């Protein structure tokens, strides 16, 4: 919850008799209620205050695959500052059906070659690129040329060279570029970051992160190198890499790695099945990471500190995160579960992009954040190929300190 949200909650609570207990009152452009709960229960968050639809940032969804239809389109129903106003697809039949299902005007359906029409649609202020990785570069460059802000799925592209092109194109067009690292907006992961950086349980010493699943259909695009750029590493291993960088705020100094694919399995003739890599940070933290397309689904983050153990189950999943902190409490070992209200992480990241457009802010996860992950993933591949550690570090000219590739901290919707 943001300071603003906390302030509203406090305002409503402190208002007392001036705010009717059950009907509430209009204050600061929203309806507020006094806290009806007793002192033994947590203070409830403020009631939602979405922007009127006409004032929200209009997005065009570029690509109508599983992620768009299963997660993003439903997530827009939970956003407060954004709405879908256009669809871009290579399948007119599918696009017409989705447009009808979500009340999107038929004349705002576009093909991938109709960026000139998209440019003329003033209702489209931003695009969300959700196509295969190998096509991100072309779609981002086209969106920038059309004068539209860009939210692009991870991984940013197929290489650091493509990522640099995308950043340059958006800078030249004076449009914002944000990479959709949803985990950096997810409440449980943000709480892990807060705990680590606060030093409440001492300094972190060792981090373990794993993201794995089974992959079946051999014809899917994620197993084709020209479209995916790689296998388990850029698709799901990137969550381990990016999340650890984000929670520490620093960049690794060196990387070692190993890669393995089951011999004879045709699914992995072009891309890797499994990757394990170790990140060594200047602060002394060691991070051991693993990712695989050949294991039962598991997505877990563990941070071992001087005085505690921070364990996040389903860390990289779309939902159902569980955060458990183990620590000494006098003569007993305490295991505290931090219960946080569920919030749709896709809606949170979309609203952050919308807020950055409305207030002309740099996104928390700009193109430079995606570029750095590509640089580090290339180092992981090189370390696995050579069998030797590869020296890395912060981007040249990025300066010193924490979060050198990130924009200001995102607000958390109340």
What's the structural blueprint in terms of helices and strands?
Layout (H helix, E strand, L loop, with lengths): L2 H13 L9 E3 L2 E3 L24 E6 L3 H11 L5 E7 L3 H11 L6 E2 L4 H6 L5 E4 L3 H13 L3 E4 L7 H14 L3 E3 L7 H12 L5 E11 L10 H4 L3 H17 L5 E7 L13 E7 L5 E7 L1 E12 L2 E6 L8 E8 L2 E7 L6 H15 L7 H20 L3 E2 L23
Parallel strand pairs: 3-4, 3-6, 4-5, 6-7, 7-8, 9-12
Antiparallel strand pairs: 1-2, 9-13, 10-11, 10-17, 11-12, 13-14, 14-15, 15-16
Helix pairs in contact: 2-10, 5-6, 6-11, 7-9, 9-11
Q: Which class of secondary structure composition applies to the elements?
A: alpha/beta
Going across the biggest sheet, name each strand in turn. Answer: 16-15-14-13-9-12-11-10-17
**Helix/strand order, N-terminal first:** HEEEHEHEHEHEHEHEHHEEEEEEEHHE
Q: At CATH's second level, what is the architecture of the largest domain?
A: 2-Layer Sandwich
Gap between N and C termini? 5 Å
Would you kindly provide a brief summary of this structure?
With 414 residues, the chain is an alpha/beta fold. The chain contains eleven helices and 17 strands.
Structural notes for this entry:
The structure is a single chain. The chain is α/β, with parallel strands linked by helices and 414 residues long. It has two domains: 53-182, Rossmann fold (3-Layer(aba) Sandwich); 183-341 and 367-391, Dihydrodipicolinate Reductase, domain 2 (2-Layer Sandwich), CATH 3.30.360.10. The protein contains eleven helices and 17 strands. The strands form three sheets. Strands 16-15-14-13-9-12-11-10-17 form a nine-stranded mixed sheet. A hairpin with an 8-residue loop joins strand 14 (308-313) and strand 15.
